[in-house]
Amino acid sequence: MSEISVQELRHGLFSISWKLKGSSMEVELVELCGSQVGQKLSISYNENFREAKKQKKKSYEYEYTILVEETSWDNTTSDDSQLSESSQVVEEMQRVQKQMYEVNKETFVKKKSADPLKLLKSEMSSPKHIWIKSPFIKRQYLPLVKVDSFKWKRVNFIDEQRDVLILCVDFGSTKRSERNIITGLVEMFNNQHRCDVQFKFINEQTIGAHSLILSAGSPGFAAMFQPCISESTNRQVTITDIKVEVFQQLLIHLYSGSAPKIEEENITQPLYLAAEKYDIETLKSDCIDVLLKKLDIDNAIEMLVWSHLHFIPKLFEFALKFLTDNRREICLLPKWLDFVRNHPELCALVTQRMVV
Prior knowledge:
Elements: E1 3-10, E2 13-19, E3 25-31, E4 40-51, E5 60-70, H1 88-103, H2 105-110, H3 116-122, E6 129-133, E7 141-143, E8 145-148, E9 151-158, E10 164-170, H4 176-190, E11 197-201, E12 206-209, H5 211-217, H6 219-224, H7 230-234, E13 236-239, H8 244-256, H9 268-277, H10 281-293, H11 300-309, H12 313-325, H13 327-330, H14 334-342, H15 344-354
Parallel strand pairs: 11-13
Antiparallel strand pairs: 1-2, 2-10, 3-4, 4-5, 5-9, 6-7, 6-10, 8-9, 11-12
C-alpha cells in the first residue's frame, strides 16, 4: 500500500503527501482529520510516458492526470479492504439507508430529496480549492479545476516520473475583514443594540435580536418575519419548546457562525433539534461533528437510536459502525438488553452487521 500522510496546516487547510509506487495508474482513499473528521477524498493519479511535442530535438515527457473526488457519503468505514463500491459493507450500508428511507419517507419529502446518498452528500462540507505541488519550482502549486459538484481534475506534463504527490486541500477559513464584521455583529447582539424582535421564554426571560440577520441565516426565521405573519408585526415571539440557554447559542451562531457552548453535554442535541426547526444547516452540521467526536462505548447505543429517531444518516452510520467495531464490549453492557427489548428493528440491523 502506498504511504500517505495527512496534516491540517490550519483550520480547514490540509496537506496530503502521497508516496507513489511507480505504477502508471494509482488510486487511494484518503481520510481527513481535525476539522474535517469523517471526510474522505478518492485520489486518482494516471501517468503516461509519451513523446514530447517540442522543437526539432526528439524528447520524451510524462503526461499526468490527477482526479480528486469527494466520497465520504459512500462509506464511513476506515478499513481499506472494505472500500470497494461492490463490497458487502457498502451494499449493506446502502440497504440500511434504504430502510431508513422507507421508515422516514415524510422526512425525505420534507427535505425534497428521495435519495439517501444525496442527503449524505449535503451534510459534508466541500473544498474551496485544491492544488498540486509542482515537482520543479519550489513553493509553486498548480490549481485543480472543479469539473462537477464533487470532482476536481488537472492534466499536465512533467519531464520525469513523479515519486511523491503533494496536494493542498482548502475547505476555507475566515479572513480578517470577515472577522471584523462578525465581531461587530456579535457586539450588537451582546449589547442588545437596536433589536427589532424579542424572544420570550417560559421563565419570562427575553432575548432581543435583529430580524434581518436571523432571516439571512435561517429560512425558518425568514418565513416567520414575512409581513403577512403575525409575529413579524408584533416583533415578539414566544418560545416554549427550546430552553433559553440553547436558543441563545442558536442566535449566537447566526451572528458569528459558531456556538461557543456547542460541546457542552446538555447543549449539543437540543441545539441540533433547534437548528432543525429553524432550518439552519450549518449549525446542524456543527452539532453532528461534535456528536461524532464524542461517540464512545457509553453513548453509542443512544446515538444510534437518537439519530434514527431524528433521521440523521451521517451520525446513524457512524454509530452503527462504532457498535459493530466494539461489539464485544457493547453486548456486555446492561443497556444492550434494554436496546434489544425496546428497539428490535435497530437491534436486527446491528446484529446483521456484527456477524458479517
